[in-house]
Amino acid sequence: MLNGKVALVTGASRGIGRAISLQLAKQGAKVAVNYAGNEAKANEVVEEIKALGGEAIAIKADVANVTDVDAMVKETIKTFGSLEILVNNAGITRDGLIMRMKEEDWDAVINTNLKGVFNCSKAVTRQMMKQRFGRIVNISSVVGVLGNAGQANYVAAKAGVIGLTKSLARELANRNITVNAVAPGFIETDMTDELSEDVKQELLKQIPLAKLGQAEDISAVVRFLVSDDANYMTGQTLHVDGGMAMN
Ligand code: NAD
C-alpha cells in the first residue's frame, strides 16, 4: 500500500510512535525512526523493521530544536531520496494544577508538543511541495478537545495541534498535501503506565467501549490517513478513544 513512500515518525522509539513505524513499514514504507534520547530502543525498532524485510534508519533529534529538525529532515531525504509522510507523534507530559505549574513545565510541553509539530511540518513542506504530494498526521489527544484538570500545558498544546492541523490543511491543499490529526483517548503505553489503578478504573467509566486503547489502535488509523483511501480527507481530527469524546 505504501510501497515507494518514505515516512518520518517522531518520538518513534517506543509506544504509539513505535507502533506507527512498524505499521507503515509493514505497508511498504521506508521509515526514519526519530528518537530524542534512547538510541538503543530506536535501533530495536529499526531492526524489527529490517526483520520484516523493510528499510529504516534511526535519527536523533529534539523536535523542539529547529537545527536538529532541519538536519533530521535533510538526512531522511538524503538517505531515502524523498519524503512523503510525516507523523508528528513526539510528546511529553508535565502535569500539575495551574497554581503549582512551573513556567518551565509550561514551556517544555508547549515546545515539544506544539512547537515540535510546527518545526517538523515546516521542515518537510518544501520537499512535499516540490513532490506535489505529502501526508502529514499529527497526534493530538482527546483532552485537547475535552480539557483536563491538571494538564493545562498539555491540553493547550494538543488543542493547538488541532488548530495547526486545520490551518496547514488549508495552506497546503493546493499542493496535494493533506494534514490530519488523530486524537487518542487513553492508550496503554509508558506515558500512561504511572497512573494508579484507581485512576484507570475512573477513566474506564468514561469510555463507552469500556476498555483502554492499545498503540495499534492508533497506528491502524494513521495507516488509513496516509493511504490512498484517505486522499479526499484533510483538516480532520479523528477521535480514537473508545467513544470518550462523543459528547
Ligand atoms: P511515550 O512517552 O511512550 O512516547 C513519546 C515519545 O516521544 C518517546 O519516545 C519520547 O522519547 C519522544 N519524545 C519526547 N520528547 C521528544 C522530543 N523533544 N523530540 C523527539 N522525541 C521526543 O508516549 P505515547 O503514549 O506513545 O505518546 C505518543 C503520542 O501520543 C504523544 O504525542 C502523546 O501526547 C499522544 N497521546 C498519548 C495518549 C496515551 O494515552 N498514551 C493519549 C493521547 C495522546
From TrEMBL:
Keywords from the UniProt entry: Fatty acid biosynthesis, Fatty acid metabolism, Lipid biosynthesis, Lipid metabolism, NADP, Oxidoreductase
Cross-referenced Pfam families: adh_short_C2 (PF13561)
General function of this protein: Catalyzes the NADPH-dependent reduction of beta-ketoacyl-ACP substrates to beta-hydroxyacyl-ACP products, the first reductive step in the elongation cycle of fatty acid biosynthesis.
EC number(s) on file: 1.1.1.100
An individual GO BP term: fatty acid biosynthetic process
Originating species: Anaerobacillus arseniciselenatis
Cited NCBIfam families: 3oxo_ACP_reduc (TIGR01830), PRK05653.1-1 (NF004197), PRK05653.1-4 (NF004199), PRK05653.1-5 (NF004200), PRK07231.1 (NF005559), PRK12824.1 (NF009464), PRK12826.1-2 (NF009466)
Protein name (Swiss-Prot/TrEMBL): 3-oxoacyl-[acyl-carrier-protein] reductase
Family under the similarity heading: Belongs to the short-chain dehydrogenases/reductases (SDR) family.
